Amino acid sequence: xxxxxxxxxxxxxxxxxxxxxxxxxxxxxxxxxxxxxxxxxxxxxxxxxxxxxxxxxxxxxxxxxxxxxxxxxxxxxxxxxxxxxxxxxxxxxxxxxxxxxxxxxxxxxxxxxxxxxxxxxxxxxxxxxxxxxxxxxxxxxxxxxxxxxxxxxxxxxxxxxxxxxxxxxxxxxxxxxxxxxxxxxxxxxxxxxxxxxxxxxxxxxxxxxxxxxxxxxxxxxxxxxxxxxxxxxxxxxxxxxxxxxxxxxxxxxxxxxxxxxxxxxxxxxxxxxxxxxxxxxxxxxxxxxxxxxxxxxxxxxxxxxxxxxxxxxxxxxxxxxxxxxxxxxxxxxxxxxxxxxxxxxxxxxxxxxxxxxxxxxxxxxxxxxxxxxxxxxxxxxx
Length: 382
Description:
The chain is 55% helix and 12% strand. It has 13 helices and seven strands.
């Protein structure tokens, strides 16, 4: 294990950074060095005064400032740990909180080895994650605009022609000519505002999805293989696969599928003591973006049927091992859903259980794809 002479804690905010340092050895005191502006040049100078890059270990909490400091320190050859805030030990007697104290606590806990490091994505992975989350926000805004428009038309007793799909082609044509049917100008102006807002959000979603399609085409060969492996599973098409790829990064960093399930927050909460064992609902303490798309994908296993044409086409691009895992998932997850319903479980709980197991199959196919890509890379290098 690498030894460091100084352990540095940073309490990072939008405009300032509080710095504290703990020297090696538990007997030495933790020193607060003050507060500096949150600027790259200022932080570089402050750390340079503490010693050589290989002698320093720096940590700060993950938060709204992102990973810019981590990437800056990595470029300076300084080891850095980004800490999960929810896993920082807290003493019940602490009643005073300041930036200075927070920095000192981080330095002290870093020296004692009590901090849990969070996974830090590469800049490319973070860029893909930002794009995927932009689509999620755009879809949410589009849904809100759609609901506002629909509810307003319902209040005005404006109903589309029968057998018209909501916001389908015929429905949109009907909406385009609806403004002239309002007698009162205020109602017409209200409709035009709601309609314009929905059009704006709809175009925004289409624009972001085009960017995602272009980004998927530019994935590295290894990422492309993982993407195709994920798409071999029923219910996991482009949107879910690229979201999982962006949120997880490397699936191999999880030693088991249960760790991935815990990362997504779909494992059961547990409170056990002695002979008493109590398990509750899922924890929901993990990655909410990943959990949401997996929960939606799980509903695809309500039906036990053959793979459709689109799914068969996606599986043609995968190895026999990955296809075998995907076919096993078809049978296992459909059977699981029907079994839970037969035992009286609500459909929502059954779908949640299926989502948890679906993550396990996603881990299996993704790790297999990553291993295949690594083997080819080693063979090419040899």
